[in-house]
């Protein structure tokens, strides 16, 4: 569980919870109370509203407090010699590469680790 004590992030989360609470209150006590729903329909609407409110809170908390993870460093170094070509003066020059196919892991040339698709690090 990760909790970053960022004041702006905490204020944003509190605003989200206030808006969710207000939405639940408005639906249950104003829309359903004065709407055309009677008896079981009103009860079902209130129950559905409360369930959606609770699921929204749980999902927001799980997304906010979950560690995003990281790509661990590789224990073995990757050989990039096949990516270099020698010029006439004997200097090594990087070959032009085509972008990797979508959904395949790539190799970071700075820290030499495999990284998942669309991940960015090491900048």
UniProtKB/TrEMBL annotation:
The chain crosses the membrane at residues 7-32, 44-65. Residues 82-103 are annotated as: Disordered. Residues 82-91 have a biased composition (Basic and acidic residues). InterPro entries: PFA4/ZDH16/20/ERF2-like. Keywords: Membrane, Transmembrane, Transmembrane helix. GO terms for molecular function: palmitoyltransferase activity. This is Palmitoyltransferase ZDHHC3. It comes from Geodia barretti. The lineage of its organism: Eukaryota, Metazoa, Porifera, Demospongiae, Heteroscleromorpha.
């Amino acid at each position: 569980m990760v909790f970053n004590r960022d004041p702006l992030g905490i204020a944003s989360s509190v605003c989200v919870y206030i808006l969710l609470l207000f939405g639940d209150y408005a639906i249950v006590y104003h829309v359903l109370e004065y709407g055309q729903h009677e008896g079981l329909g009103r009860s079902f609407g209130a129950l559905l509203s409360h369930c959606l409110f609770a699921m929204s809170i749980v999902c927001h908390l799980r997304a906010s407090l979950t560690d995003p993870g990281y790509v661990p460093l590789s224990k073995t170094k990757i050989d990039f010699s096949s990516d270099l070509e020698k010029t006439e003066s004997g200097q090594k020059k990087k070959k032009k590469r085509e972008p990797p196919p979508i959904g395949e892991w790539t190799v970071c040339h700075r820290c030499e680790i495999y990284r998942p698709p669309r991940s960015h690090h090491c900048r």
